[in-house]
Design brief:
With about 475 residues, the chain is α+β, with helices and mostly antiparallel strands. The chain has 3 domains: about 130 residues, no CATH class; about 100 residues, Phosphorylase Kinase, domain 1, CATH 3.30.200; about 220 residues, no CATH class. It is about 55% helix and about 10% strand. The strands form 4 sheets. Strands 1, 2, 3, 4 and 6 form a 5-stranded antiparallel sheet that branches. Helix 2 crosses helix 3, helix 2 packs parallel to helix 4 and helix 2 packs antiparallel against helix 7. The chain is globular, with a radius of gyration of 23 Å. The C terminus is likely disordered.
Amino acid sequence: MSPKIPTSRLGRTAKFGGLVAGQGARWVGTNTANRFRSDEKADEKLGERAMDTANEIVAQLGQMKGAAMKIGQVLSTIDFELVPEGERENFKAKLAQLRDDAPRVPFAKMRKVLEQDLDGRMSDVFAAFDEEPIAAASIGQVYRATTHDGREVAVKVQYPGVAEAVETDLRNANLLFPLVKRLAPGLDVKAIAGELKDRIGEELDYEIEAQHQRAVARAFRGHPFVTIPAVDTALSTRRVLVTEFIEGVGFAAVADRPEAERDRYGEILYRFYFGLLNREHLACGDPHPGNVIFTPDGKVCFLDFGLMRKVPDEYLEGERQIGRALLAEDAVGVHRQLGVLGYLPDPGSFPVDDVHAQLKAAGAWYLEPGFRRITPDLVREIMEVAGSPRSPYFEAMRRQTVPAEALLIRRMEGLLFAVLGELRAGADWNALMRESLEPGTRPTTELGEAEAAWAGRARPPAGAVA
């Protein structure tokens, strides 16, 4: 069984404080000793110290669960250039896997949370309730149940004490980020820390997640190939989220299906997440394989809307301008807009053509016209260009940062790309991107035509999908 979640403020602060103090002292020792070592030996020892720090961060965050786990999951999308190159992807994978190491809490304890929030006995609300969870995440477990009126529902229940643990983690996050800064010197940790606190604080409140899910369900009502489970508002509270139960199979069950079927699902995933961003201004931070269900009627059901951000229209338009400039081969426009949005802290120190080439290489999968199949090898190849020390743009990338407004956008884009690679999906991704960025662009696929017809009936034309 997983270790008990430390819920006291003192206990969790001690965990963070011990990690930071111990590693801080060891970094000082390494840097002092390196003054008397050869450059080669100093680099070797620096790499060992960075790897030790990385491993301890993973271990401590994994033990603490709650917000600490979520911080680790978000950090998995950031490149840590001081971690030895051969270990970097393994480290990031460990951070990402914190989601799958969620604690399994005995149902007796979960039942107390459920009945406290429902203000009554479980049997008063549900005719049947399967006590074996069907899913577990960093702050809660999901169960299947049947209401007295015969509806099949999914019931997400928050772990007891996790709210207090998360709130303490958020207060303590500033203790952790000096270590993160050591591993990624170019990162604007203050902005990232603030964004994490805002987003994770919201994720803790299932009533906010319910609001997000209802908004997404409204936006995709009647959609030809997307399904969003309906929220049971009357039964949902801050720590309990009850939604419609959707029958279907998980990601693993479709990953080996014929190419045509995988390609169709890949296009649906792309259209959903980018459509949600461009039409509804919502960046979804969890395009994870575990958050999609493939239904018998060929639709895709999307789950988990806790980690989300409403992106201001003005900022989102700035992101679109970068995309349009890339499509137009406008290197000056790309550079200028990156500076305006804050990706380039000192724009004049970044050569225009180098920045343009960097973004073209990182976005090659959707910037190059024509059909392209995304494979795990392609994902690794592009991710290496986007973050590896072997990348010709690596030194420049170390001095760049990610604006807080873009953190979940970049996370969404990167995780979606990885998921499409796992699916080995193919499409003309460039054509799909142009639909999002250029007003009046006619869809080039049957799914696109179906979505356009639905959008025309569901709402007035929205210009450049704003």
